[in-house]
Amino acid sequence: MLIKRRHMLAAAGGLAVTPLFSKGLAAEEAGGGDIIVVAILLNGGNDGLNTVVPLPQYSEYYKLRTPAPPPPGLNMAYAESDLALLAFDPNYKTPPLEATQFAFAPSMLAMRDLYTTGMLAVIPGVGLPKAEQNPFSHYNAQMDWLTGQINIGLTPPDGWLGLTVDGMKGGKLGVSASLGGTSQILIGTQQQGLVINPPMDYFGASYGIADNGKQIEKTYQTIAALPAASGTGEADRDVLKSALHDIVTVKEVAKKEKAKTYPLDSWLDYQLRDIGRLITGGTNIRAYFAQLGGFDTHYQQMLYQPTVLSQLSQSLVNFYEYLSAANASHKVVVVTISDFGRRPYANLDFGTDHGGAGVSFVFGEQVNGGVYGAYPSLKKFDDYGNLAINVDFRNVLSDLIQAMGGNPTPILGQTWPKLGFI
What we know:
The chain is an alpha/beta fold. Helix content is about 35%, strand content about 10%. The protein has helices at about 1-10, 25-30, 60-65, 80-85, 110-115, 140-145, 160-165, 215-225, 230-255, 265-280, 305-325, 395-405, 410, and strands at about 35-40, 50-55, 85-90, 100-105, 120-125, 175-180, 195, 285-290, 330-340, 360-365, 370, 390.
């Protein structure tokens, strides 16, 4: 892949490397409201402190993440020398070895490449507000991010992305789809979103069963072809017809796009590959959901988090290059969300427990690259001993809802000032 050549140049010490992809002209012409949003949940609560390291606070960072004395190989702080090629400033044009403000984790070299293009917004200090009564619960925190509400209780409201696309004109498969399992984020008052288990080449009524849906689909076809009936029978028949239509349409798109190559090195790659197929296949779906697990790092964090951060970074590059090659990248915006951040200090198992502020990324040709929000202090924590929240998560969602042509106030319950990353 082209991006890997740039990695080689950066590793060789080049200070000024020409980006191998940049904003297309179509991005300047695409109007707000036409945007397609892909929300990726980093499931489990990503540790923002070891995702984006605040270089001016490096000494505090090192103390927090280094046990005294640290057993061999169990240091949780990245060495400054390992961060040099990953450094960046709010001005995305600053070369890595001249940047002094932040650094991506060493496994995120692909993310650093994306930042150079001016299409990546980094939002540190983001999270749930003090008013959230149960901020360290995976369920509560995820549902907050998925719905745009807080203190939701046992009956979650509709999803912010589903409500945003409610009433919008979709295509043959509706306006929203999840490749990461059923998700509250896509539930609206009119539609709940189509759930497709990747790879969508095998999408059917009984994916995972030996006949790959053939026998059950035949049964569906038989029932759907029965004469019109009244009451429940007719309603059931309409549901089956709708299901058959979705199955046939998804398979047609998969067959059409199958010849196009795509790197498949992680489960997120499979999800984004199929989202890319649906986009380039002309389905007119406006909202997508995917997820990547492995972020609940209570134990031996350095054995796991670098790997999933690498997968996230490279998957975004793969996704963009696929869309760009098909001239379909100019309307697509990707946002990462996660339950919460982690505690600033390492625990006794060389992991981190549920904490406060984290970091979100927004990527796409419509995005104004840079840093939005202040990085939390590593000397002064909140009442729970966590990194303070400087950007309410709903403020991030508000900008995205507006960019899609929606009204964020009724969805989020209040008005938020524009952050400006899109």
